[in-house]
Amino acid sequence: MASVVAGAVRGNHVHPNVTEWLLVLGAPATLAWRDADGTVAVAGTKADEPVLAEIPPGVAHAVRCDGPGTAFLVSWADGAPETEPVTPLL
């Protein structure tokens, strides 16, 4: 589990070898990911609606807490993830 305070970003990385599931809850947040064709997509969450995202191998991703408050991230993967940094998405 990780926490993200208002305005902060976590992620901006890719796991080339595993699928990751990411549960975001506790505060409004923005999730961003880069599709295989290079397109950056974003989705917003609400504080009272937890969101579960499935992130396939090789998809760059990041989460920003839009506040107020702190967002919490719970993540798990289908193996031991390798993590590589990417050009910031958020």
In the CATH hierarchy, the architecture is Sandwich
| Biggest β-sheet description | 5 strands, antiparallel
Instruction: Specify the overall morphology.
Output: globular
- Overall structural domain count: 1
Q: What structural category do the secondary elements indicate?
A: mainly beta
Give unreliable regions as ranges: none
In short:
It contains no helices and nine strands.
Structure description:
The chain has 90 residues and is an all-beta fold. The protein has a single domain, classed as Jelly Rolls, CATH 2.60.120. 0% of the residues lie in helices and 53% in strands. It contains no helices and 9 strands. The chain has strands at residues 2-5, 9-14, 20-25, 29-34, 40-44, 51-55, 60-65, 70-77, 84-85. The strands form 2 sheets. It has a 5-stranded antiparallel β-sheet, with no helix packed on it. A 4-stranded antiparallel β-sheet has the order 1-8-3-6, with no helix packed on it. It is globular, with a radius of gyration of 12 Å.
Question: Secondary-structure blueprint of this entry?
Answer:
Blueprint: E1 2-5, E2 9-14, E3 20-25, E4 29-34, E5 40-44, E6 51-55, E7 60-65, E8 70-77, E9 84-85
Antiparallel strand pairs: 1-8, 2-7, 2-9, 3-6, 3-8, 4-5, 4-7
